[in-house]
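<instruction>
Derive C-alpha cells from the sequence
<data>
Labelled lines for chain and fold
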Amino acid sequence: MKSRDITACIAIGSTRRCTTVLINFTFSNFKSYRDAQQFSMQRPTNAQKHEDGDWALKEYSTVAGVYGGNASGKSAFIDAFQAVTDFVCNGLNPNLDLSRELQPFRLDPDSRNCPTQFLVDFLGTDDTRYLYELSVHSSVVEFESLRYYSGSRTSRIFERELDGDAYTFRYGRTFTGAKKNFERMVRPEVPYLTVLYATNVPIVGPAYEFFCNRVGFYRTDLYDSELEYLKKGLQKGTPTAKALASLMASSDLGISVVQPRDPLEELQESSQQPGDPREGGYEDLASGVLALLQPDLTKEERRRQAQGIAKMPPMPRYELSFTHRGKNGFEETFNETEESSGTRAILAFFSLALRLLSVRSVGFIDEIDSSLHPSYVQELVELFKDPRTNPHQSQLIFTTHDVSLITKTGADKRVLDQDQIWLVEKGADGASTLYPVTSLPSRWDENFGRNYLHGVYGAVPRPGFHEAFADAEEDLHEAQAAATEANLGGEN
C-alpha cells in the first residue's frame, strides 16, 4: 500500500476546538491478520488514576506504541486503518484500486473467499461519538453502516447491505434528504459515506471529516515529503513554520536558523531593481536558455522574449539552508545536500509534531525509531503525553523496536504506560495477532522492556540465527572445497 503523506491529511489553522479522538478500531481478514483484532485507545480506570496530566478526556490515551518482530504485522496494522481512510476519502476516485488496497489474508483458502471487515469507533468533529462499519469483498461493498451514540446506546444514521444483486438501504430518524437520489448515485465499489458527503448531506460531515481532515499517516523513510511541506510554509511565513524555526534555533543541534532559499527567485527580483549589481541578470539568463532551446530565433526576437520572461516570477523552488554556529560566534551555512540525513529527519519530525499538536488529530507513524536517536523518539512521544505541549489531546500511534520507551531504570518513569503498550505476534499459521500488555498477567510498575526482550510477553522473534548461520557457513565451506578440488582435477 502506498503511504499517504501526512501533509495531505491534517487540516491546520482551524480556530474551532474539535474533539477528534480514535477510541477503538476492529478489523479482520486484512493482509497478515486473519481473525478479528481490536485495538483500543480507551484507558482503564487504573491507568487514569496514575495519570499526572490534567486531560479533558482522561478516558482516552494520547499515545500507543506497537512492538513486535520484523514481518510480524506491525505495519499491516497501520495499513488497515489507512485502507479505511483512503477508501472513504478517495472512494470516488476512479484510479483507486480496491483490490490492492484491501488485501485479504491469503494463507488459507477460506479467508480468500471472505470479506475484509472494519469497525471504527471515534469522536467526530462535532463532539459526537460514531461507529463506522465496513465490509468489502472482491472490491464490492457488502455492508456499510454509520451510527452515533446517544448516551450508552447507538442510533442508525444509515445502513447499506448487499442482498443478492441489489442493495437494501435503511435510515435513522435524523436522516433527511432525497434518499432515492442518493441511492442511485452510489456504485458497488464506492462508500455510501463518501457519496453522501459529496452531495452535501450535513449529518455525515463530522464522520467524513474525521477520516479525511483529522487522520494522517507518516513513514520515516519518506521524511523528504514533510520537508517539502515545511519549505512552502517557511516561504509563506506560516505560524507553524515560524514556530519550528524558533524551536530549531533553541535546540542543542547547533542549528541557529532554518530558512528557505530560492536563488532564481532572488535573481528575478533583484534583476528588476535599477542600480542593483544583478540588474538584468535574469533577462540574460532567460536569453541564454532561449538560445539553446530555440537557436533559430534572431537576436532581437530572443531579447524580446527574454524581457517578457524576466517580468514573470519563476516557479518557486525552495531549498532549506542550515546555519550552524561554531566557536566565538562563527557561523557557516549548509544546503540540504550538505546537511546530514539525521538532521533532516529530526527537522521533519519536529515539523510533523508541531502540525499534529496544533489541532486535535490522530497521527500514525510507522517505524518511528528508524531515523531518530532514542532520545529524540522519547522527546517526541512525551510531547503527546504532556497537556502543556498537547493542548488539543492529539493522538500518536506508532510502531517501533525501541524498548527504551517501555524500560524502567532506577527512579526514572517509563515513557509508555502499561495500557499504552501493544504487541504483535505472528503464529505458525502465518496469521498475526495484535494484543495489549494489559491482556497478560503484569503489574503497573513492571520493567516491560526487559521482559519483552526476554520473551515474557511473546511477540519477540526467536530465529536461532547463530546455529543456522554456522550450518550455512559449513555448507558453503564444503561447497567451495568441492569446487576447488574439481578445478584441480580438471587441470590434471
Summary: Confidence is low (pLDDT under 50) at residues 1-17.
